[in-house]
Request: fold
Amino acid sequence: MRKTLLATTLLATIAATPAAFAHEAGDIIVRAGAVTVTTHESTSGVKTSALGNLNGKATLDNDTQLGLNFAYMVTDNIGIELLAASPFKHDVSIKNTAVGSMKLGSIKHLPPTLSAVYYPLDSKSAFQPYIGAGINYTWFFDESVSSTAKQNLNASNFNVKNSWGWAAQVGADYMLTDNIMINGQIRYIDIDTDATLNTVAGRTKVNVDVKPWVYMVGLGYKF
Reply:
């Protein structure tokens, strides 16, 4: 009898609790969390003006920063979203070249990405998976040459060209309340750039197709 009473009370409480509505036209959504850029670069050989192709490749390490999303729901199922983040920092190295392997220096970048996003489920669903596609602009700045590259190559004037590319994503929100959600997302961003610097072998250049996967987990708030 006691178990029956408890079960009846629980069902009544659930029935009386309003459903957590997800996204509807006109909503503004702000998400924040940890965002990690994992690079999967492919590169040309290291080319110099004086010695030609030194072969080898360039590499970049991964980094984690604060990620921000700002979204506006155009309809119940379609939104426009902007990805932003605090600046990412990567060490840039060369490997297996004719002059050996070493750290060239470090760079910072910001990857603002504007996407159209589609939510296939009904707006009253608390669970909201989505897919999206859009365009990315990667701004590289604050390039610095390592002490090793200065000493071994007399390196200077390190520069990385900004990049335009496409982006795609999958993700999901789960509404904890009518306004608060947890979020997870995965993105692929096309970043293709040229890195150049002056060395004892003349002007040195390498093309880098970064091909990063970007992972973000965080919380969101719907206005």
Q: What stands out?
A: The chain has a mean pLDDT of 88. DSSP finds two helices and 17 strands in the chain. Residues 11 and 17 are 10 Å apart (CA to CA). The first strand starts at residue 28 and ends at 38.
